[in-house]
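Quick one: co-fold with coenzyme A.
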Amino acid sequence: MTIVQATLDDVIEITEVNKVLDIGWRLVSKFYSQEWVGEQVSNGRIYIKRRQEDVAGAVCLSIEWGIHRCYIDSIAVRTSFQRQGIGRELVEFAKKYAQNHGCVKMWVATMLKYGVLEFYQKCGFTMADEGIQAENTEGANCRLSIDFPEQKS
Ligand SMILES: CC(C)(COP(=O)(O)OP(=O)(O)OC[C@H]1O[C@@H](n2cnc3c(N)ncnc32)[C@H](O)[C@@H]1OP(=O)(O)O)[C@@H](O)C(=O)NCCC(=O)NCCS
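Sure, here it is.
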């Protein structure tokens, strides 16, 4: 099934899926709050992949219009559907979405505690020059990005 824009009917299920982002840190708890998910869905920023009737994965995308960059605010795949290619599919969708919106770069920031650097690297991201950053008391994080070739008009 293809990846589609989420609707308000999906908010509860996306909130449930995004609970895989819970690493016990207050900093990331918004990602699995209905309020935040509802706001992002209302703004048309969340895209979902279904397996049968279930939401199997969700990605939240933001475009920084002035600087032509797109960032992945959150990406999550339901535990029972992980390691089946859904995360990569969501990233491939995000790349196309970014390029279709004229972006020259896509980036993501991840806490090392998630242990997903390799996932992003397998999806084509490279670590930003500044490398791994120590961030506040909750742990280290890292920015990864992908540059897109400039599109000829
Ligand atoms: C990270 C996440 C989105 C990946 O989704 P997924 O559907 O499991 O990933 P895929 O099956 O598409 O994996 C693509 C490739 O990355 C690899 N990969 C996936 N997760 C990985 C991990 N944690 N560590 C190392 N490699 C990983 C897969 O083995 C696969 O490699 P292959 O192409 O050589 O077979 C998912 O595991 C998840 O929701 N994790 C919890 C939330 C999270 O950490 N989100 C990111 C926070 S920044």
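If it helps, The chain has four helices and seven strands.
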